[in-house]
Amino acid sequence: MDKPKVVLGVSGGIAAYKACELLRRLTESGHDVRVVPTASALHFVGEATWSALSGHPVATEVWDSVHEVPHVRIGQSADLVVIAPATTDLLAKAAHGLADDLLTNTLLTARCPVVFAPAMHTEMWEHPATQENVATLRRRGAVVIEPAVGRLTGVDTGKGRLPDPGEIFEVCRRVLARGAESHTTDLAGRHVVVSAGGTREPLDPVRFLGNRSTGRQGYALARAAVARGARVTLVSANSELPDPAGADVLRAGTAAQLREAVLKAAADADAVVMAAAVADFRPAHYAEGKIKKRDGQEPEPITLVRNPDILAEISAERARPGQIVVGFAAETDDVLANGRAKLARKGCDLLVVNEVGEHKTFGAETNEAVVLGADGTETPVPYGPKGALADTVWDLVADRLG
């Protein structure tokens, strides 16, 4: 089979050196990558580096190999174009259809999905002109990944940092996996909230009541939503996974903290997906000091009290009309029967029901589930990558959002 053809555009920002890692991941995973840097980008990383890592000569000018008409052919033959980093200047040119170099010409001729990974100072990202350009590109179907928050050039810190190259690669992989469908970016203009991970309820300063969830399914949902053009807020409970590129990540520890973060983020959300494993109970009393083991004495019983039912709460009190709410049901027996009862009890629109256990689902890269709908539908998702389940969930959400 022919390798997927990817054009990696690199514009002139200090983060250009990070694109080398993205290029390596793309080539090592079986993609045929053509690097198209701008003249400014070559001040940061030279042609020799791009050529060595891609295995192809590097195209920089419309006048190179004119008989091959590169300003047209490169874009026409691509399965994906990804720009990393995308500077504010490049975003402006792309939004307004300017074509003064090979990369911007390529963007105009490409009929495949296009992913932009911006990197710039916070003030430049937040400027109304940049935000309007980003909105224009998203409206046209491009995926513009939200920048990360962190250290910028010099001593500055804020939003504008290029996301981790590994996470940009995951977005590209998801976009390519969806093929022509991804060009529609059916969640563009939508704000979605995803919870992930497992809450922990403290017993004393060193112990807690928790669960086995690692957050992999929730993170897969966040990545898939970014690849489909959504603005994503990820509420992460005690997960050690790297932040998905393009998602605004909020941290939570306990069920109460997760509830507060989800309710706040859901205020303007089109969809809320509760993939986190939220503790049903918490200790009634917190020991200020470590609970000691006493020789010859059994420990005092630990009394539990109920935690708030976040899924039922947001289902009953929708923050806005038409908001779609998705829950997860982790079951160990009578999986579908318990799932149907939970769907009726919680009042959500969709419920993802899966069987879990010590060595099943939690922490794994794969999952198998049935998505139950409040309208009586049942959508089985066969055993496979968690990203596949994530896309099925978003397919069903997008249909209901219209």
Question: How does the helix and strand content classify structurally?
Answer: alpha/beta
In the CATH scheme, the class of the largest domain would be Alpha Beta
Helix content: 25-40%
CATH topology description of the largest domain: Rossmann fold
Shape descriptor reads: elongated
What profile does the largest beta sheet have?
A: 8 strands, mixed
Contiguous runs where pLDDT drops below 50 for at least 5 residues: none
Task: Describe it.
Its cofactor is FMN; Mg(2+). The protein has 402 residues and is of the alpha/beta class. It folds into 2 domains: 5-184, Rossmann fold (3-Layer(aba) Sandwich), CATH 3.40.50.1950; 191-401, 3-Layer(aba) Sandwich (Rossmann fold), CATH 3.40.50.10300. It is built from 13 helices and 19 strands. The strands form 5 sheets. Strands 12-11-8-13-16-17-18-19 form an 8-stranded mixed beta sheet, with helices on both faces. A 5-stranded parallel beta sheet has the order 2-1-3-4-5, with helices on both faces. The chain is elongated, with a radius of gyration of 23 Å.
Task: Give the gist of this structure.
InterPro entries: CoaB-like_sf, CoaBC, DNA/pantothenate-metab_flavo_C, Flavin_trans-like, Flavoprotein. The protein has 402 residues and is α/β, with parallel strands linked by helices.
Topology:
Elements: E1 5-10, H1 19-28, E2 32-37, H2 47-54, H3 70-76, E3 80-86, H4 88-96, H5 102-109, E4 114-118, H6 122-126, H7 128-139, E5 143-144, E6 148-151, E7 157-161, H8 165-178, E8 191-197, E9 201-204, E10 207-209, H9 216-227, E11 231-237, E12 247-252, H10 255-265, E13 271-274, E14 281-283, E15 304-306, H11 310-316, E16 324-331, H12 335-346, E17 350-355, E18 366-373, E19 378-385, H13 386-401
Parallel strand pairs: 1-2, 1-3, 3-4, 4-5, 8-11, 8-13, 11-12, 13-16, 16-17
Antiparallel strand pairs: 6-7, 9-10, 14-15, 17-18, 18-19
